[in-house]
C-alpha cells in the first residue's frame, strides 16, 4: 500500500501542478503511452474532425449553443493528462438534446468550457473574474424562518478530491480510493457530527428501507443525462452514504461527484443548518489534509465538480415552503427571478411541485460566496413568506427590485 | 471514438487487484470466466483502435444478471477484439456456444436449395416466420466503439449498397433522424421500427451513443426484407412474412444477403468473417451465423405440458415471448427459434427450426385431441 501511495503522491503532485495552471490547461506533450498515441493518430487521419462533428440541430443545451465546428476541430484530438477527451466531455450533451424544465449543460477544455460556464452562470466570466469562498456562518443574519410556512431547511454542496479523476472518468481503483479517503476522514468526526458509513454493496434490506424512508438514500441513477456521461459505471462499487447519528449531516460518496455534503433538518432554522454545514465541511477538510489530501479548488472557478453547473460554491441552499396564495399569483415567477431564486418540486430537480409546497433555493452557484448565497436565500424566502402573509390578509404585494448578481 | 475507459495507460498506475471489478454478485458468462490473473494479463493490451479489456467487460460489470437468460457480459469493439482478448473470449464462446473449441472451424452455407421442406408449416398454428442475422463491415469499429464519422460512413455505404437492389428486393431507406411522424407510425404498425435502446445491457456497452445519428431502417416495397442500420450491429438483416412458409423466407434471406455482399464488394468492402468464428458481430452470442430463425406459433396445450422445456432442449430450440428477447409469452403464442448460432451452418439451423416446429405442431394437435405425445418424443439433436 505504501508504494501505491507514493506513486499516487507523484501522480497527485503533477495533477496539482497542472490544476494550478488553471482548469482546462492542456499539457500537450504529456500524452498517453506510445501504443495508444499511435492508435489515436491513425484514426484521426482517416476521419478528420469534420466527419465526427455531432449533429446538434435539434439540441438545446449549453454545450450545443457554443460548440462550433472550429472549436471541435481544434480540440477533438487533445487529451488531458489522464487521457480524457473532448468527445467524452460532450457525450452526455450529444445523447441528451434537451430537458423539459431546464437548459442542461451538456459537457474540460476551456475553449468550450469558458463560454458554457459564462452562459450557464449568467455572465460569470472565468477568464476575467475571481470567485470568493466564505464559509463563516456567523455572518448570516435572520436565519430563522416562520415554521408555519417553512417545513424543512437544507444546504448541499459537493467536494472533489484533488489528484483523482471525476466520476465520468474515474477508474474502479480511483473510485475506491475516493471512498477510502472520504470515509477515513469522516470516521474522525466527533460530537454531534459523529456518525457511520453505509456501503451500498453491503447494505441490508432493512437499512436500505430505512434510508429510503428518511429520504437519504440515493439510488442508481436513471436519468440519461447522468448515465450518458459514464458516471454510473461499475454501480454500486465504491458507492455509499455516511450520516451522523442525529441524521442532520449526510455525505454521498461517488454518486455524481466524489462527495456530496448535505446538512438538513425539519423546520426553519437555516442558520443552524448552515452553521453545521460549514463546521462539518471545514472539519472534513482538515481531516483529509492531515493525510496529505486536499479538495479541488482554484480562484477562477472555486470548487471543481463534475458538472459545470455546480462550479464555484457548488452550493444549493433551500427550503420546502408552503406558498398556496403566492404560487397562484401571476407575479410569482418574476418575484423569484428578481430574488435570484429557483423553484422545484419537492422531489428534486426533475419534479414538479405537489400541492402548495415548493422547494425554493438559490439560482446561482458561482460569483458569490457561500455566505452571500445563503443570505440571499434567507432574505428571499423571508420576502416570499411576507408576500404570502399579505395575500392571506387580502393586501397587495410588490415585486422587489432585482438583487445584484455578482459581488461588487 | 474514445469511450469512458480509454485512458488505459493511467490505470496502469494502480495494481490489478485495485482495479479488478467486484463480480461477487454477478451471473453472466464474463463473470464466470474472468479471474484476477486473466485481468492482470490482459489489462495492458488494446486493439489498434484503442479498445481495451475494460471496454470489453463494462456491460458485464454494470449488469450483474438477467432474470430470463444468462447474458454474455462482454462485447467486441472491432474485429481484432476477438484476437487480442481471446484469453477471455475463447472460454466465454466455448461456454456460450455449447463447447465450441478454439480449434473448431465454422461452416457457412447460404444455399437455400439445401433446405428440405419448410414450405408446409400449418398456418393455423404458425402465424409468422422470420430469419434474421447481422453483418459487420470490415475495417470499421463496431457500435460500442465507433466514432460518429465511422457510423455515418457505415450508413452511407449501406444505403448505397441497398439502393442497388432490384426486383422484389427493391426498397427505400428511412433515416431515424429525418423520419416524419406518418412514416414513423407506419413503421411501428408494421413492427419494423426499432427504438432507442433502453436495455441497460446495451446502453452500458456504449452502442446508444449519439442516438439517432447514423441510424435508420431500410425495407423493400413488399415489406418482407428489412435491414436495420447501426442498431446493435452495423447491419441487421431480416426476412419475414405472415404464415408458415419458412422456405420462402429463407430463400429471400439468402438471395438478399448474397446480393448485398456482392454489392459491397464492388465498392471494395467486405464483411467481417473468418473460418473459426464465422461472421463477426458485436455480441459474442451472435458469432458464427448470427442467425436466429423462428416462428410465432400457437402452442397453448403443449406449453403447459411438463415436458415442454425438455422437448425444446432436445430439438435445440429456444422459446421467447412474442415481443422479443426480453419478453414473456402472451396467450399461448410463442416465439420459437434455434438456440445455436455457431458451429452449425445457416441451412442446418433453419432445418432444425423447420423440423422442430413441425413436430411441435404435431404434438399440439395430439394434445388437443387428448392423445399422448410420448411416442413422438424426439432424440437429442
TrEMBL record, chain A:
Keywords: ATP-binding, Kinase, Membrane, Mitochondrion, Mitochondrion inner membrane, Nucleotide-binding, Signal, Transferase, Transit peptide. It holds the Pfam family ATP-gua_Ptrans. Its main location: mitochondrion. This is Creatine kinase S-type, mitochondrial. Gene3D superfamilies: ATP:guanido phosphotransferase, N-terminal domain, Glutamine synthetase/guanido kinase, catalytic domain. It is a peripheral membrane protein. Residues 149-391 form the Phosphagen kinase C-terminal domain. It is an enzyme of class 2 (transferase). InterPro entries: ATP-guanido_PTrfase, ATP-guanido_PTrfase_AS, ATP-guanido_PTrfase_cat, ATP-guanido_PTrfase_N, ATP-guanido_PTrfase_N_sf, Gln_synth/guanido_kin_cat_dom. ATP binds at residues 152-156, 215, 260, 316-320, 344-349. Its EC number is 2.7.3.2. Residues 45-122 form the Phosphagen kinase N-terminal domain. It comes from Polypterus senegalus (Senegal bichir). Reversibly catalyzes the transfer of phosphate between ATP and various phosphogens (e.g. creatine phosphate). Creatine kinase isoenzymes play a central role in energy transduction in tissues with large, fluctuating energy demands, such as skeletal muscle, heart, brain and spermatozoa. The keyword Transcription regulation does not apply. GO terms for biological process: phosphocreatine biosynthetic process. GO terms for cellular component: mitochondrial inner membrane. Belongs to the ATP:guanido phosphotransferase family. Residues 1-27 form the signal peptide. One of its GO terms (molecular function) is ATP binding. It is found in: Mitochondrion inner membrane.
TrEMBL record, chain B:
It is an enzyme of class 2 (transferase). It catalyses: creatine + ATP = N-phosphocreatine + ADP + H(+). Residues 11-98 form the Phosphagen kinase N-terminal domain. The keyword Cytoplasm does not apply. ATP binds at residues 128-132, 191, 236, 292-296, 320-325. GO terms for molecular function: ATP binding; creatine kinase activity. Keywords: ATP-binding, Kinase, Nucleotide-binding, Transferase. Its EC number is 2.7.3.2. Residues 96-110 have a biased composition (Basic and acidic residues). GO terms for cellular component: extracellular space. Residues 125-367 form the Phosphagen kinase C-terminal domain. GO terms for biological process: phosphocreatine biosynthetic process. It holds the Pfam family ATP-gua_PtransN. Residues 96-122 are annotated as: Disordered. It comes from the Eukaryota. Belongs to the ATP:guanido phosphotransferase family. This is creatine kinase. The lineage of its organism: Eukaryota, Metazoa, Chordata, Craniata, Vertebrata. The gene is Ckb.
